[in-house]
Specification:
about 300 residues, mainly beta, Porin, twelve-stranded antiparallel beta barrel, about 55% strand, globular
Amino acid sequence: MKRIIITSSFLILIYFSFSQVVEKKDSINNFHFKLSTGYLSNYLFNGRSDSLKTPYSLTTLELKNDNGLSFDANLYYLLQSNNKRFDFFEFNGSYQHNFTNNFSGGIFATKYFNSNQSTKVNSGTKGSLGAGVVYDFDILRISTETDLLFSTKTDLLLNIELDKELKWNKNEFTWTFNPIVDINFSSIGYYESSLTQNSQRKGRRRQIVALQNVTSTSVINPGVRMMDFEISLPISLENNQYGFRFVPTFVSPINSVFTTSTLNNGGVISTIDSTPYSERFLKSKFFTSISFFIKF
């Protein structure tokens, strides 16, 4: 019931905030398509990743309209040496409106379809719903986005981003260099469900009997906290038909998430400290993605 009230209130707020901004001249019939395929060296969420490195082959189909409406579907195929398989599918929809030359806002929604074998750090997440605004100061651009994240609990996420997009043309090609700094805040109910599921899956795979009986996981000192600090340097080269994009990213996780888990061993209930080693000793990480795309 609490989740329904929060979600309904958020949807009503979004509706009244943006229902007036779609002008009649906007058409939903003029979509542009982009198909891309690429490689992601590791998957992170809020600065966290699985204990094993998770590289992916990523295929994306994007539909974008001139009026600011866009959809994209992303298929993630896991490329671990002994574990190659489809891992999850992600579908995104958004609407972005320019209120002035410098100020814009948008609404966003994401739905995840996770494999029952997925061990990514947010594998318990079903989807998200959010809204954000962007203001361009010319010398830099600042944006904020607030999301509701749906798992066994409803979490609140806040992203603050600074970036500067630089473009220059070379013959028929356009180079884009877009340095980005991100700070992410989040409550961490999703962490509890994901850690429980992942412990059970790893227990079966690695035959660690103790972890097979995890029934629940709880975060010590729950609440919204700063999760990570990120710096990325996207570089792209494209023309009207095709292009490529390369994104190196540095991530520094902040504020360790300490957890306890409840075990049921034949009716005997016990509690253990289930904080992963990687969470006890947070380390900065570096990962990259590269993709090639065609537009039609």
